[in-house]
Structure formats: C-alpha cells, structure tokens
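User: Quick sanity check before I run a bigger batch. Here is a single chain. Can you write out its predicted 3D structure?
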Amino acid sequence: MTVIRVVTFNTFFGGHDDFGLGAGKRWEGQVEFLKGMHPDVLALQECTFWDLLGNRWMYETANALGMGSAFLAYANATTGMHRFHSVIMLSSRVQVVAQGAERDRYHHVMGWAQVLLPGVGGR
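Assistant: Done. Predicted structure follows.
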C-alpha cells in the first residue's frame, strides 16, 4: 500500500504581519510547523502577496520545506482589495500531470492539480 500525506493550511495573510506586507515572523513558525508534517501534497490558503517579485515567497517557502514543485493559483481581488492566492506544493515523490485554478465561483481561489502517485499505476 502506498501512503501519501496530504496537508492543508491557512497561512493568514501569507504568514506576514500588516495584512501580508510586514515582517514574516509568523511565516518562520509556519515553515517549521509544516516541515514536521512531512507533506507529499501541501495546499496553502491566503498566500497574500506571494505573487510579487516572480512568486518569491512561494519559492522561498517551497525551498525551505524541501518541496519538489509549487503552483500559485491567482485569486481575484476581494472587497478589501486583498488577493488571497492558493498554493499547491508537491514533494518530489508526486508527479504533476496538469494543474490550474478556478477563480470565477469562489471568494478566494481554488487551485487544483492532477498528479501521479508513487506506486499507483495509470492516470
């Protein structure tokens, strides 16, 4: 039997103070917490401002967690003008077949990924 670990987590303004633009002290604690989960699939919500500077915070987080790939699903602006992006990260054990996002029907954004799992045949 193949076992994978799927983790979902709300970063609360991307783990940064000042509505996502401030210091990342909370983000540092979140990274340490998530490392201990050893996820194969990690779904993150409220990744506010993670799209800036070429998705820099997304890649910093993926690298800090040792994840194999990351995908940022861009959200529409909310009434408060925040963009609560979602991020899906995959360990190197999981292969991506396809990925995308559904922005039209949700307050935030729903990212999705079709994957191949280790030891499981077919698609």
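The CA atoms of residues 79 and 107 lie 10 Å apart.

User: Great, the batch can go ahead then.
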